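Minutes, project check-in
Item: structure for the 115-residue chain
Input as provided by the requester:
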Amino acid sequence: MSGFKLKRVYETPSKEDGYRILVDRLWPRGQRKDAAQLDEWNKDIAPSQALRKWFDHQPERFPAFSVQYREELVAKAADLDRLRDIAKKKQVTLLYAAKDERHNQAIVLKQVLDS
């Protein structure tokens, strides 16, 4: 199976994850690099530092955050196309550190990649 799925970086890696890419700008607190078993850490497709700080994981800001992050991703077309090419061949798991599984940048990124 190929395509995109989401997973917290703190969850145990599995073979079904396929290509594991961390999509956070900052390294996840308390996570060892070897334990993450990453294929890639792409800080460039993460939200900008200013947008990340403004959002501050506040659910009520998520709709506005989503719009602004999508606007930032327009400039990342080459990175997005490369990930879509990988996903044609194998599963791609977008890894994130946020505790909130319903309001985070990986959700927005997956929606953009799937569209």
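Outcome recorded: Strands lie at 3-8, 19-22, 40-41, 91-96.
No further action items on this chain.
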